[in-house]
Amino acid sequence: LKGGGEQSGQQPDEAMAAPVEPGSGLHDRNASYSCLSGLVPEGEEEEELKPRRSQSYSKLRHLEGLDYESKNLDVPIVVVSSEVEPWSKSGGLAIVAGAYGYEFAMRGHRTMVISPMYDDYPGVSWVADKDVPFFGQTHRIKYFHLRKEHSKDPSGPATDYIFIHLDCFRRGGGLYHDANGEYGDNLFRFGLFALAALEAPLCCNIRGSTYGDKVLFMANDWQAGLVPVMLTHKFRAHGTYRDARCIFVVHNMGYQGAYPWTGTELGNLGLPDGAHDNLFFVYPEHMRSWELDKGECINLTKGALITCDRVLTVSQNYAYEICTPEGGFLLQDNCKGKGIFLAGIQNGIEDTWDPTTDTAIAANFSVEDLSGKAACKQALQKSLGLHQDENVALVGFVGRLTTQKGVDILQDGVVDWMLKDEGNGVTGRVQMILMGNGDQHLSDWLKALEQQHKGRVCGYAGFDPKVERLMMAGCDFLIMPSRYEPCGIPQMVALTYGTVPVVHATGGLKDSVKDARSTDPAVTSVANGYYVSPLIPDKMKEVLWVALETYHKNRAEHTRLMKNGMACDFYWPHAIQEYEKHIDYTMSDPPLYKV
């Protein structure tokens, strides 16, 4: 048994991304196919390594409805995440962790973000050492600090970033695995990280004081899964952190931090026998690797779900899905067991995503004046070597090239069908841009598509944030056929830029996209996109036909969908207000799990 496949700690394909190196850009430039090879020049000067955040709270239109007053502004927020942009990133977790750090500080909390120090980061300074017993040895943890102030007032909102320096995190591969697979010592690595994170508020003296032991921990995904377990069994049981609480945030239930059980795990982690039932897990027979495999493992996500004070997911619909056999990945009963202490909050997007002010796109536009959208489309077509034709529907895809993202659905005749002109005035009047990293055979498919349909298809095996931004502004449609999507950020950005999403009705996609084909008038009145369900090629074609036909033959209706999407407010302040409510609920209750 090696973690039971998808339930192991290994992250998706994008986790192969290496940590940011000192002096490098915030994102790797991957090799592109011909259309994009010259779009972003090599050696282009990059910005200083720092979080890119504008002042969300300065935009009055984002303040509408922000009337909730936190009852626990004096309680520091401690975000524990295995990655945080721009220092380390394998996917959406890094983006969300960075947003937590900024937004909670802007709300008035003293805010700390704790993450491993995968490399030498510019601007950090040593702040503390701590010797801890772990896995039968004493390990010295080094803490490095960087303070990011969000106003010119030194006493104004700021975020304290704490980086955990340990030799086990200094590797040349990805954050969680390399080309040979998942690192064999990930239980050790992230167990020690969790312990180090719990010590940080107690031992890191920042500007004359520590954060103390009355804090709210926000532990993110399996990598921080031992934070609530150790908080409960190791710290609180001995009189420390009695007033602290922990919220466990599930970003992706498909990755749980599950490792073979040998019987030494509790002792190695410094946990008492009472933690056994929280962490011990047995896979069903059909998921075991060989005949004598007992299926026994330690499951960090299970432990977190049981011992934390509250569980939050990154969308409301995903909170429901993890309670089902399809979405719970064998932990659905533990999720259902949280009852009213389980909820979902849709992630936000940064307000740098704003078509009315975005300086990186060809022209600005708004709900009141959409003329700039056409200019963005023309500029995008020109920059990627596509035929400049305002009458075609420009369809985009941005995501990992994997079956989880549903790329195989597109490959199974859907793209060929869209591109084939059958004289119906709908199919054949399409151009496509597909961008992403992932499986080699899917990368090869993108290359073949581009070669076969020069001027009509751009295939990009890689990722570039500049191209992504141009696509959001210039495309007419964004397709997201993900088999599951806990939250999803691209569809929210697309809606903000008047790009109509066509999505599988799952997870956060279902929360943010409203189906134009719904039979409910209350839904169709605010419709901003299209649902595909079930996710099969024929249904994908059926829905795309409606979307493309509407675009070509009923432009007024298509424009209505665009404007409905642009009227949505997906920015972070609204999401953080919901987090504040759950923080207040959590801090007002005694610890949920009793030792």
Can you tell me the residue ranges where pLDDT is under 50 for at least 5 consecutive residues?
1-6, 12-62
**Number of discrete helical segments:** 19
Number of strands: 20
Average pLDDT score? 90
What does this molecule look like?
A nine-stranded mixed β-sheet has the order 3-4-5-2-1-8-9-13-14, with helices on both faces. 32% of the residues lie in helices and 17% in strands. It is globular. It starts with 76 loop residues before the first strand and ends in a 7-residue tail after the last helix. The model is unreliable at 1-6 and 12-62 (pLDDT under 50). It has 595 residues and is α/β, with parallel strands linked by helices. β6 and β7 form a beta hairpin. It contains 19 helices and 20 strands.
Summarize the entry for a quick read:
By secondary structure, the protein is of the alpha/beta class.
Q: Key terms for this structure?
A:
six-stranded parallel β-sheet; alpha/beta; single chain; disordered N terminus; about 600 residues; about 30% helix; nine-stranded mixed β-sheet; 20 strands; 19 helices
Topology readout:
Elements: E1 77-80, H1 92-107, E2 111-116, E3 125-134, E4 137-149, E5 158-165, E6 177-178, E7 181-182, H2 186-203, E8 216-220, H3 226-235, E9 245-250, E10 258-260, H4 265-269, H5 276-279, E11 280-282, E12 296-299, H6 300-307, E13 310-313, H7 316-321, H8 325-328, H9 332-336, E14 342-344, H10 371-383, E15 393-398, H11 407-419, E16 430-436, H12 440-452, E17 457-461, H13 465-474, E18 477-480, H14 490-496, E19 500-504, H15 507-512, H16 521-524, E20 530-532, H17 537-553, H18 555-566, H19 572-588
Parallel strand pairs: 1-2, 1-8, 2-5, 8-9, 9-13, 13-14, 15-16, 15-18, 16-17, 18-19, 19-20
Antiparallel strand pairs: 3-4, 4-5, 6-7, 10-12, 11-12
